[in-house]
Amino acid sequence: MVDIVLAAPRDLPVGPTGRKGLGSWGVATLIATEAALFSYLLFSYFYDGVATPKGWLLEPSPSLKLALPNTILLLLSSGVAWWGEHGILTGRRGRALWGFGIAFLMGTVFAIVQWYEWHAKPFHFGSSNYASLYFVTTGFHMAHVLIGLLVLAALFLWTVLDYFSPRRRLSVTAGVFYWHFVDVVWLFVFTTYYITPYLGFGR
Amino acid sequence: MNPANVRTPSVGPVAEALEHRLHSLWESPPGLAGFFSTVDHKKIGIRYIVTAFVFLVLGGIEALTMRLQLAGPDRTLLTPNQYDQLFSTHGMTMIFLYASPILSGFSNYLWPLLLGSRDMAFPRLNALSYWIYLAAGIFLYVGFLTGNGPNDGWFNYVPYAARDYNPGLNEDFYSLGMVFLGVSVTIGAANFIVTAMRLRAPGMSINRIPILVWGTLTANVANLIVVPAVSLAFFMLWMDRQFGTHFFDAGNGGQPLLWQHLFWIFGHPWVYAIVLPAMGMASDALPVFCRRPLVGYSVVALSTVATMILGFGVWVHHMFATGLPSLGLSFFSGASIAITVPSAVAVFAWLATIRLGRPVTTTAFLFFSSMIVLFVIGGVSGFMTASVPVDWQLTDTYFVVAHIHYVLIGINVFPVVGAVYFWFPKMTGRLMDERLGRWNFWTMFIGFNVAFLPMHLTGLLGMPRRVYTYADGMGWDTLNLITSIGSLVLAVGVLLLVVNVFRSLKHGAVAGDNPWDAPTLEWSVSSPPPPYNFAVIPTVASRHPLWEGRLEETQARSSLSRGMELKSGKEVIGTTSLDAAPDIILEMPGDTFAPLCVAIGMALTFAGLLLKSWACVWVGGVIVALSLLAWLWPRRKLREREPEPAGAVESAHG
Predict the structure, then answer these.
(1) The pTM is what?
(2) From residue B163, how far is each of B242, B248, B584 by CA, in Å?
(3) Does B381 score more than 60 pLDDT?
(4) Of all helices (H) and strands (E), which one includes residue B162?
(5) 3 state SS of A180
(6) How far is the alpha carbon of A70 from chain B, nearest alpha carbon, in Å?
(7) pLDDT-derived band of residue B651, with 50, 70 and 90 as boundaries?
(8) DSSP string for B377-399
(9) At B164, phi and psi to the nearest 5?
(10) What distance in Å separates residue B214's CA from the closest CA in chain A?
């Protein structure tokens, strides 16, 4: 190594270049700790489901009428954000603006539908331990959606200001990475609260 | 090709002009503005150490007050309520506000120096994690000083902590304060992990990093994963208390044991997180005084990691007495017993290092070597309680109190004080007084053992922990008196340390670069180090760059006086994770107020949550959001946007 460094040094990129740089590592650690947070929330659900006597599910067959399309919408928004990121990668700013803008709108619709879904529930967060877990878990997720929307809005603004290029796009990579996380973690929350009762858990 | 985008790093010798330029690039401005905006890891590290030490002294005063109360039977110095708050605050202070931050302080100060870098990976996050730690510490102590300290022990079991049984603000201060503090720990963990993976000197491959780095890295990987468990538990508790949710309240389907699971899923790995870095200090410093490399570097590094991995699977041993199924008990008992294997590996490595070396008895050596003895005692008592039937007998007695103090004082405080003696010369340029050091060591060592060795017996005789007094004639009087006397002697020892630090700051002998003739990179720079740490980036060829001449381990030699200059801006070299090959030149951020603003905003938010002043929460939240937006705003200087075209860049690049 000494020979390579001192006798034959080579060209190195300066600052975050493409995916390279510390920022992506930083976001990865953020996502790791957030994923841990959600796994403890889901751990609590499964723990309570096993430990509480039958009948703890306040909605043994949770309605999928809104939740399923909403889930699909959120997952699609991840694809749209990715498509926007690809616009930055290939130097097409218009596509990036459409991508971040539409992903933002889809996220907003998700949040509104989820808000409506909360109000349509026949129980509130003080009804039982199941209700508390449901509202706090989906509430935590909602907080992450709102932060993700702020991130998408910032990316949109910075793209309007023409800040990014295929080489310098760390904020985009990091921000879209975070949005993917927000969407993927919902899949776990959704599966736990809306699908496992149909599979027999807690019934 | 624009040199602001791609560049071959220039290589040169250490030269005065270079040092001068780096100094102007890296130094924080003087005065208050510099104080509140600095991102220098050395300044932040020392702040961490000083703040944690203040908390150690506060926690010590709390302990002494309790020992006065317990010195004899039926004493009335404290009321039961005062006693509850004192022992809980003592635990909270020592475990959360001293034991972990002190290690973060040392690691913050030392890591870039050990790794041959000029800063941590995220200097601004580093400042933020300190400010949040300080703010959370103040938040928790405001509770204590207004009579609202935690009062259900540091692990805070429900239903004691539920609102029906504990209507004051005590538990709300504790819950919100712990969530707040968790943010600091998590941010620090992210910084340590990325620094260790990406910011090592070229050539410092993964098998050459100092054990302290292994210890802190392992601890912080654990922190990143387990801190959310306790933050979530405290958040749920606060919701239960203030908003009528039913996570833990058995009357409405809640599960009191869920609290214990979430707490100990965090709590047990945390115990390792506050000893592994300290064990790392011993693994790096002890060999210096044995005049030989550590025996079994690889197995010690691996056992550090193995301890943590096993440490994730032992939390239920804190819950043996809660009536869990016997299959679960057996599994966790087995895992808890198995964890002694990697711990013993470290012990035997240290013993072999002393045996095969030529020990030089300094104060630091005494602290590090005595730690081995205390570790074995604390380890054996822990091993005993890993056995379910023994634990049923001993749980909630003073035996467990003796165990935790042997572990936390023995494997945290003793090596930390050793580390003070060892690295003080590097931080200040002056040596500590050795004569006073001997007094310091022996009073602490004797005081500690007089206080806590008999406490095992107190526990075996059945004295329960956390009682504010006890009746005459239980057979506990003499033992308690001895413990109280011992704790006073221990306190005198800590006082001697403080005296020594302050005296040596002014009157200590001038240390020079490498007073202990130690092998690692931090000793190759001046004491105290310049703001940029290394004038040229070292290139490393072995584990002991400063001992290569006499060890003859390899043909290759590290290059410390010639290397990459990186003088175009505040620059460091990013290297690959395993081999540490040069990978990228990184532009580091300058001083900024953003971290302080975020911490202030968060403090307002948490104060608002406590007082249910939603306006305060909003104001705090908006401050946080705006500060983060300014912080993350893409900058040309940091190459988050395209730099100025090549012609516009001044020719000072290197």
Answers:
(1) 0.96
(2) 8, 11, 54
(3) yes
(4) none
(5) helix
(6) 26
(7) very low
(8) HHHHHHHHHTSHHHHHHHTTBHH
(9) -55, -35
(10) 18
| pLDDT at residue B1 tops 80 | no
Please give the Cα distance from B640 to B179 (Å, whole number): 32
pLDDT digits (tens, 9 = 90+) for B584-632: 999 999 999 999 999 999 999 999 999 999 999 999 999 999 999 999 9
What residue in A sits closest to B232 (Cα-Cα)? A37
Axis crossing angle, helix B297-311 with helix B276-290, rounded to the nearest 10: 160
| List of residues 6+ apart from B327 with CB closer than 8 A | none
Say what the ipTM of the complex is: 0.96
* Structure confidence at residue B654 as a pLDDT band (50, 70, 90): very low
Q: Which residues on chain A are in Cβ contact (under 8 Å) with B586?
A: 15, 21-22
Task: Output the six-digit token pair for B251.
Answer: 């009357």
Contact (Cβ atoms closer than 8 angstroms) between residue B392 and residue B313: no
pLDDT at A42 over 80: yes
Nearest chain A residue to B1 by CA distance is A11
Query: In which order are the strands placed within the sheet that holds B11-13?
Result: B11-13, B559-564, B537-539
Share of chain B above pLDDT 70, in %: 98
Confidence of residue B646 (pLDDT cuts 50, 70, 90): low
Report CB contact under 8 Å: A29, B189: yes
**Contact state of B193 with A29 under an 8 Å Cβ cutoff:** yes
pLDDT (tens digit, 9 = 90+) per residue, B282-330? 999 999 999 999 999 999 999 999 999 999 999 999 999 998 999 999 9
CA distance readout (Å), A101 to A70, A157, B229: 18, 10, 35
- CB pairs below 8 Å between A and B: how many? 203
Contacts of residue A135 in chain B, CB cutoff 8 Å?
245
| The pairing of beta strand B559-564 with beta strand B11-13 | antiparallel
Chain B CB contacts of A37 below 8 Å? 228, 231-232
3-class SS at B584?
Answer: strand
Return residues 157-216 of B near A (CB < 8 Å): 186, 189-190, 193-194, 197-198, 202-203, 205
* pLDDT for res B550: 87
Alpha-carbon Rg for chain A in angstroms? 21
Say whether B586 and A17 touch across the interface (CB within 8 A).
Answer: no
* B582 → closest Cβ in A5, A129, A133: A5
How far is Cα B289 from Cα A117, in angstroms, rounded to an integer?
Answer: 66
